[in-house]
Amino acid sequence: RNTLNGNVHKSEQGYLFVLEDTEAQRVIGVSAIEVAVGLIEPWYNFHVGTQVHASKALNVYKSLPTLFLSNDRTGSSELCTLFLDPERRENQNGKFLSKIRFMFIAAFKQYFEKKLIAEMRGYSDENGCSPFWDAIGHHFF
Fold first, then answer.
1. Rounded CA gap, 36 and 27, in Å?
2. Residue 2 above 90 pLDDT?
């Protein structure tokens, strides 16, 4: 309610959607949108890119994958938090939880930024550890 009234700074605004089994009176899933990320604290992201080294004279062409730390998505709106009870992953419940965010944004465009991003959760092992974080991410944060 405070978000719609404009009583909260844009960086603190967000919307949480809850899918409930009304017969069982039980929450079975959630999804969310953040209005603008990184306006108070830095919001970093990684860019996957390609660097090409080429020389016709030397007959060389090398394409190298790159990873850059960036914060150029600061201020973007973000699709986040999509969880559905594993026992309820049926009847397109997950699809509904995801799409409702887009429907809400379409209905209330004035509250969101033109740039919309989504973070994808990376791989975690059986202990909840992320090899990417352990090898790279923790060096930056």
1. 26
2. no
